[in-house]
Amino acid sequence: DSGVTQTPKHLITATGQRVTLRCSPRSGDLSVYWYQQSLDQGLQFLIQYYNGEERAKGNILERFSAQQFPDLHSELNLSSLELGDSALYFCASSSWDTKPAGYTFGSGTRLTVV
Amino acid sequence: AQTVTQSQPEMSVQEAETVTLSCTYDTSESDYYLFWYKQPPSRQMILVIRQEAYKQQNATENRFSVNFQKAAKSFSLKISDSQLGDAAMYFCAYRSPGIQGAQKLVFGQGTRLTINP
Q1: DSSP type of residue A25
Q2: Do B101 and A50 touch (CB under 8 A)?
Q3: Is B105 close to A42, i.e. CB distance below 8 A?
C-alpha cells in the first residue's frame, strides 16, 4: 500500500457518459497530481492541486475537470466520454517542502469507454 | 518547457547481466531533480532512484545506479545483476526546483525492459 488511494480501480462506461475518479493522498501530503497514461504511452500530466487550489495545468481537455476538497482528497471528473479517453488515470501526492522527495503514486483507475 | 526523451523504446538483457537505459532532458534551469520510475505489469509506479542536480555524486540504490552528466543533460540508469523481477517499463522523469505548487513531474515515453532467463 503506497498510502495513496484511488477508487474505483476499474471503470467501464459508455461514450457520452460522465465519471468521477477519486483520490485520497498520503497522510500529510498537500499536493495532488493527476496523470493520464494511454496504452503503452508515457504519463501525461493533467492537473495539480495544492491545499485546495489549482496550481498547474497540463494537457487537460475542457471536458475534464478536477477539484481538491478541504480534507485534501481530490476528484477528477470526465464528461462526454469518448473512446479515446480510455486510459489508466493515476493520482500522485507529494508533501510541500524543499526536500527532493519523490512522489507517491496510487495504483490507478483503469477507465474503459465502450 | 522541459522535455524528457528516452530513445530506447525496448531493451533486453540476459539475467545476471548489466543493462543501461538512456535518458536525456532539455531544460534551462540549473537546479532540478531527476527520477527513474519502474512500472511492472501490475502498472504500479515505483520509484527506483532519484538524483538532485546540485549533487555531483551519482546516486546508487543497491543494484541500481545512475550516470548523471549535467552538461550533457543526460541521466542514464544502470541495472547490475539483472533479475527477472526487473522486467518492467522504466520511465525517466524531471522535476523543476521548489517553486511552490509548481512541481509536476515530466515523464519520458518509457523503455520496456525484458529480462531473458
Answers
A1: P
A2: yes
A3: no
Q: Is the pLDDT of residue B102 over 90?
A: no
Q: Which residues of B touch A92 (CB under 8 A)?
A: 45, 105
| A10: contact with B, CB 8 A cutoff | no
Which chain A residues are Cβ-neighbours of B44 within 8 angstroms? 2, 105, 107-108
What whole-number distance in Å separates Cα of residue A46 and Cα of residue A57? 6
Q: Which helix (H) or strand (E) holds A5?
A: strand A5-7
pLDDT at B99: 59
Contact yes or no for B91 and A43 at CB 8 A: yes
Residue pLDDT, tens place only, A18-52: 999 999 998 888 889 999 999 877 899 999 998 99
Instruction: Report the chain B residue with the minimal C-alpha distance to residue A98.
Output: B98
